[in-house]
Design goal:
- The chain is α+β, with helices and mostly antiparallel strands.
- The chain is built from six helices and six strands; from the N terminus they run H-E-H-H-E-E-H-H-E-E-E-H.
- The strands form two sheets. A three-stranded antiparallel β-sheet has the order 1-3-2.
- A hairpin with a 2-residue loop joins strand 5 and strand 6.
- Helix 1 crosses helix 4.
Length: 170
């Protein structure tokens, strides 16, 4: 079995390799911390070192960070997969099978905002399905507080908004 810190990195790579979508920091930490494999700080250090090594790629917005497995990361976990005990692999597989729909759904809804050239804020809202946008919407808001509110509400109400738009367009 691998050294403890190396094992934490392999667990993260294994998790990202087993799904067809990126995972957020909170999704990865939920599994690792609930199973008490390591501490929050060591998990973040492992994520940072994996990113520095080019094995994962980070994508950040105002409200969350998600991680993608790179080609090098995929090759690495294929090579070192056997350094993760079968019991840990089973725990990961069960967690992902149990929560796959919930995890994927959480990641498929994206929203972020930025200050535009008019001094207002553009809020970019998306729902991604199979790597393609199901809906891709940009809304202008006069203040950062309103932009933040739109971004947060998009995560909560995207299905309602999508259904309303589609009912009016079809």
């Amino acid at each position: 079995m691998a050294e403890p810190f190396t094992l934490y990195k392999l667990i993260i790579l294994y998790m990202l390799d087993k799904v067809d979508f990126p995972m957020s920091t909170s999704q990865i930490s939920e599994f690792i911390l609930d199973k008490e494999y390591t501490t929050f700080f060591k998990m973040h250090q492992a994520l940072s070192e994996l990113q520095d090594a080019g094995l994962i790629r980070e994508e950040s917005t105002h409200n969350r960070t998600i991680y993608h497995l790179t080609e090098d990361g995929s090759s690495t976990i294929q090579y070192f997969r056997n350094n993760i005990s079968h019991a840990i692999q089973k725990d990961i597989d069960e967690y992902l099978n149990e929560k796959k729909y919930e995890l994927k759904n959480e990641i498929s809804v994206k929203s972020d905002y930025y200050r535009n050239t008019n001094g207002e804020y553009s809020v970019h809202c998306q729902v991604i399905e199979n790597t393609l946008p199901l809906i891709d919407l940009t809304i202008t808001a006069p203040s950062e507080a309103e932009a933040q509110s739109i971004a947060e509400n998009w995560r909560k109400k995207n299905q309602e908004v999508y259904a309303l738009i589609m009912s009016h367009l079809l």
